[in-house]
Amino acid sequence: MPTRTLSHGECVRLIRSPQRFRPVLASIDGQDPVSLTCFVRDDGDLLVPAGADRALVRRAAGRTVTITVTQRNLHAPGGWTVTGIGLARPLAAAERPRGISADFGLGLRVEIARLTGAVEEG
Hints:
Elements: E1 3-6, H1 8-15, E2 21-28, E3 34-40, E4 46-51, H2 54-60, E5 64-72, E6 79-90, E7 106-120
Antiparallel strand pairs: 1-7, 2-3, 2-5, 3-4, 4-7, 5-6, 6-7
């Protein structure tokens, strides 16, 4: 199936719609990827709720995070994959999204430097 390369802007639009929360695979400093659910900001940065889990914040803060987001079409072949790289830092109280049920008591903000991706065209 042919693929088309996506620009950074196209990648941001894909990962933040239609829902703002996305499951992602995240690798911290090249370690084995872990599955996280992230809130996607309009600029493509990711907010990771950690609840009261300080271990995730300690492990990732100040480190490079590589993320992968994949979506497959339900009833037809195809889909898209977006990868990105950014720097994680503790989430400031003012950055917590309002009206969201996720526990952002503690969390991370992954400041995405670059997103790349590809979409399968049928």
